[in-house]
Design brief:
The complex is a heterodimer of chains A (111) and B (122). Chain A is an all-beta fold and 111 residues long. Chain A is built from no helices and 9 strands. In chain A, strands 1, 3, 4, 7, 8 and 9 form a 6-stranded mixed beta sheet that branches. A 3-stranded antiparallel beta sheet of chain A has the order 2-6-5, with no helix packed on it. Chain A starts with 8 loop residues before the first strand and ends with a strand. The termini of chain B are far apart. Classes of the chains: A mainly beta (111), B mainly beta (122).
Chain lengths: 111, 122
């Protein structure tokens, strides 16, 4: 059971918009710690996709965006492409556990 | 350009000690705010943060495994070493070395090594 809760899977057709939620609690997201998102393509290492809730590292398309409110965060992907098919993880810090924590991951399928 | 690469055994026996080395380039572990950490991923499962060492030699460990983990750095060799004692089959995972940046505890892992799969089996 992950500290941050994500849906196991989401799907969408090419060109559509999908969102992935990340629900935390008052000891992590709700405590003001930033949420970061990672994309893991099959058979590869994760890659930082969104940092500090809403920021994209250089090279990440603006089709990817992040938001945060209260005890949850969301990753939105617009103009879905086949190459977006991957696992997505959210990450934050938990003050009760004194540990950096990840969500359980969401598998995105492009139909 | 930041690069990290993990090295170590691919197979260890139960109760043995695992030693993994992360060799990095493109940054200095003496720079204020920089950290290098280890994250693992069992086959088909989620990511789990294990340990982090800061530029000032401060160290953080996941509480559930703290008694079994040791992280050290050699800044002159641009290396970070993770030791995991008393390995068990449940420790079978791909172990990633990561560069960490950010403010305080709100830090992200912005560069990752390719990972190394460690299998624990007799």
């Amino acid at each position: 059971q992950s500290v941050l809760t994500q849906p196991p899977s989401v799907s969408g057709a090419p060109g559509q918009r999908v969102t992935i939620s990340c629900t935390g609690s008052s000891s992590n997201v709700g405590a003001g710690f930033d949420v970061h998102w990672y994309q893991q393509l099959p058979g590869t290492a994760p890659k930082l996709l969104i940092y500090a809730n809403t920021n994209r590292p250089s090279g990440v398309p603006d089709r990817f965006s992040g938001s945060k409110s209260a005890t949850s965060a969301s990753l939105a992907i617009t103009g879905l492409q086949a190459e977006d098919e991957a696992d997505y993880y959210c990450q934050s810090y938990d003050s009760r556990l004194s540990a950096w924590v990840f969500g359980g991951g969401t598998k995105l399928t492009v139909l | 350009q930041i690069t990290l690469k993990e090295s170590g055994p691919t197979l260890v026996k139960p109760t043995e000690t695992l030693t993994l080395t992360c060799s990095f380039s493109g940054f200095s572990l003496t720079t204020d705010g920089v950290g290098v950490g280890w994250i693992r991923q069992p086959p088909g499962k989620a990511l789990e943060w294990l340990a982090l060492i800061y530029w000032d030699d401060d160290k953080r460990y996941i509480p559930s495994l703290k008694s079994r983990l040791i992280i050290t750095k050699d800044t002159s060799k641009h290396q970070v070493v993770l030791t995991v004692t008393n390995m068990d089959p449940v420790d079978t995972a791909t172990y990633f070395c990561v560069h960490s940046a950010g403010v305080g505890s709100s830090r992200q892992f912005d560069s990752w090594g390719q990972g190394t799969l460690v299998t624990v089996s007799s």
